[in-house]
């Protein structure tokens, strides 16, 4: 007889990590978002992504965790890969609770299956916000020619610059509700040397590449940003190559990054540097439905 999967929801981050930590670490590349966000919540506080209370969920089969999700309101729910039965069970659990869900993100097949299940149960209309590809660094290749200038790890004196550029980046990618505030982001990254600036020979910053803190042996490059008027000069590639090299030197087993599949320029750039595809992810936004009414 087939056992219907049962989801367990909790607001307790410590309990979630205690139960799901080994599972998340079993596939650090595919679970990079879950690993890095929960690590940030642990280090920076529960409300670093917003005033709402974070939510966590896990699925167990015979005492073994096989899937997990988190949500930091007002952002989307972020899930690990699910089977069709697990997807249906999650949609049913959340709909029965009257959950108001603004969106969902997971690997492509899981995301599309959940979007269909959520529409069926709530009437909410799913709309693709972004399709992304996860890459893993293979053999690092420094772009040539290297633009004039040099890399420099950002420090407290760069805080206002980082806040401004992070704000511009968030506006450009349209993810206001799903990301950490720019000031908190800058403070967190400065605390562990998590942003590298590319600056001109005169010392003017022209691009930045950030990295997450190392968790479960993986570091993810994010974000990479160059002001629009300075693009096309190789600054982003040089900054990305430098943080990728530094991540490897820091002992990362896997160096990862996401790209927007609608941006062929960035996808081509990262592949030239040495990044290779791992998996495709899709983020859906949900229009008004009947859940919670």
In short:
By secondary structure, the chain is of the alpha+beta class. It contains eight helices and twelve strands. The chain has helices at residues 13-26, 32-44, 84-96, 108-122, 159-173, 182-191, 235-249, 264-273, and strands at 7-10, 55-61, 64-71, 77-79, 103-107, 126-137, 150-153, 195-199, 205-211, 218-225, 254-260, 275-286.
Q: How would you characterize the overall build of this protein?
A:
The protein is an alpha+beta fold and 293 residues long. It starts with 6 loop residues before the first strand and ends in a 7-residue tail after the last strand. Strands 1-2-3-4-5-12-6-11-10-9-8-7 form a twelve-stranded mixed beta sheet, with helices on both faces. 36% of the residues lie in helices and 28% in strands. Helix 1 packs antiparallel against helix 2, helix 3 packs parallel to helix 4 and helix 5 packs across helix 6.
Spell out the blueprint of helices and strands.
Layout: E1 7-10, H1 13-26, H2 32-44, E2 55-61, E3 64-71, E4 77-79, H3 84-96, E5 103-107, H4 108-122, E6 126-137, E7 150-153, H5 159-173, H6 182-191, E8 195-199, E9 205-211, E10 218-225, H7 235-249, E11 254-260, H8 264-273, E12 275-286
Parallel strand pairs: 4-5, 10-11
Antiparallel strand pairs: 1-2, 2-3, 3-4, 5-12, 6-11, 6-12, 7-8, 8-9, 9-10
Helix pairs in contact: 1-2, 3-4, 5-6
